Description:
- The structure is a single chain.
- This protein is α+β, with helices and mostly antiparallel strands.
- The longest helix is centred in the N-terminal third of the chain and has 19 residues, at about 65-80.
- The strands form nine sheets. An eight-stranded mixed beta sheet has the order 32-33-35-34-36-37-38-39, with helices on both faces. Strands 3, 4, 5, 6 and 7 form a five-stranded antiparallel beta sheet that branches.
- It is built from eleven helices and 39 strands.
Amino acid sequence: MNKFNLWPAAVLATVAMTMANPDGIQAGERLVYPAAPSDGTVDEYFGIKVADPYRPLENDTAAVTLDWVAAENAVTDGYLSKIPFRAGLRRQIEKYNDYTKQGAPWRWKDGRYYFYRNDGLKNQSVLYRMDAPGQEPTVVLDPNALSEDGTVALTGISMSKDGKHIAYTISRSGSDWTEIYVLDAASLAPLPDHIEWAKFTGAEWRQQGIDGAKGFFYSAYPRPEVGKEFSNANENHNIYFHKLGTPQEEDVLVFSDPEHPLHFHSAGLTDDERYLMVAVGGQGFGNGLLLKDLSVPGSRWVTVEPSQDYTVGILDIVGDTMLIQTSYKAPKNRIVKASVKAPGKENWVDVIPEQEAVMTGAAVIYGDRLFVNYEKDAADHPALYRLDGTKIRDIKLPTFGSAGFSLSKEYPDAFYSFTSFLYPSTVFSYDLDTDKSTVYFSPEIKGFNPDDYVTEQVFYPSADGTKIPMFLTYRKDLKKDGKNPVYLYGYGGFNVSLTPGFSPNRLVWLDNGGIYAQTNLRGGSEYGEEWHEAGTKMKKLNVFNDFIAAAEYMIKEGWTSPEKLVIEGGSNGGLLVGAVTNMRPDLFKVAIPRVGVMDMMRYHLFTIGWNWASDYGTSADSPEMARYLLDYSPLHTIKNDGTAYPAVLVTTADHDDRVVPAHSFKYAATLQAADTGDAPKLIRIDSKAGHGSGKPVAKVIDEYADIYSFIFWNLGVTPKGE
């Protein structure tokens, strides 16, 4: 077990901050970091004693924590401010972001077409509508008007079936907490309806809900304790019905399960609004599913799937026949049918059997057709089928990449957005009958010519011989001389697949001779549930080995060297970066763990951390599981023996209630106190921001300017001027 370097807090507190030299950062200059509040806590897990000296940092609202955060940001800001090209780099990133971005339109219940657009540098995208494609649009909702600094994000919208009301959800400062508001669809006037303390939910409208009244279903938690809104564990996720025009206090509890307070409960309705579906998750790889016939007064809940061992989702119910997408007996997923009178999986019959590629999504669409998206080698491959499972055709995309389709049962209109590493998100209209795709919207980015670059996919062996796919994007004139900067990105968990996608922030890296490497580690869904499971619990080491092998491959093949290797990952990917930095500090020059899960012994005690146990296991499960977690936990495996570490920039935010900032706080404090050489170990703590979703464009640009400045400076690379 690691021993912590517990310098006396009083001594540390008297040490003055360095970085006061106005001429810039001096070679070999050693930073002095602020003292972190410490109380000497030691926990015990099955007889294993584990030090947790910086436990006070778990209280994110305490004065000592706030003082430490301010002091850490002062050190980080002082360091970054002396990087001579930081301001110019920010202007470059801003320039690359300053182009019109538009999403695929969709036709809604009122017959109009809705879409999101950002004309350049607006902090949040604006929702528009038009009567027909190509006509002058009208603003439906501009979230930039909801706050002065752009920290209120529009996170979802839904329309009642009669087309008369729009419910929309927002989050504030990046929090997962959701508020729901309602607009009159015709006038766009706001109505008094307001829901608070909802989470992981939309609004599911029903024309005749409880007592025949119009309203919507939503999921929410009990009101949290004041001061602990962003840290305390969330329990008892209930489903309510809100009657339009009434206060939240009068909402009717529709579904709860107090015997299982750690379950998620999400409501859904069939298109005819006859059946209410409740998906139950949070404790397994998949989800349970319950069904209730709302057309029958007093009807009971019917269990379609009791466990959370498989994914189960109802695509539609036609008459008494359900169409279900599931991973049951199909790790790469399939579509089955069953009667609502006998919904158990023993009665399921294949409609579209499991294929070689992974089925990632499906929907019943106009003309009694099935749209199905497959993923093969981490790229999308959509297709059309008839309802009986007969294949109509594959839908050809421009190149390997990611596609998001806009389709419905009511209208023949079809659009999709497509993106890849060198392909900014472009909208196509698609003819379901003729298979013809036509460009509907194409962005234009000044200073970027995709023909100057290339993307290739390679496969490399991991430690156990498993072949791992990886995308490489770089300038065509780049030479394999072992000197190229490489930005290696990975995730490896929670059945999340990393598919190709465009980022304007990445262009400064590519334009300065950098290689962007995105690897598809085990733990994701790239090859189905078996691939996912191979990176979970006591197989988590596979994920780290896959990532290390990617770095070793890039060196062996002559792309780069350890002196030019940068690794980055966020959330579960932050855990990845923290773990492999401790395992192989010699292999990387710079490490960027972002909003990471760093304390594997206590992660399950905060907000929704318990939900991650299906992937990680917990320290309370068994002595074996506790030891396994302790042996790779980034917080607990930091070396303290003089081993030279790469330069590290940790990032987190004060409103992150997904992975609470205490993870990054304690990790940074421990890293700074350890003897790991002179390379900087900094933490960047954003304000009025959360886990990442909904972050204002200005804050995103600021963050990437700081990250790339830190990276280039520590690689010894001076980026091109403006």
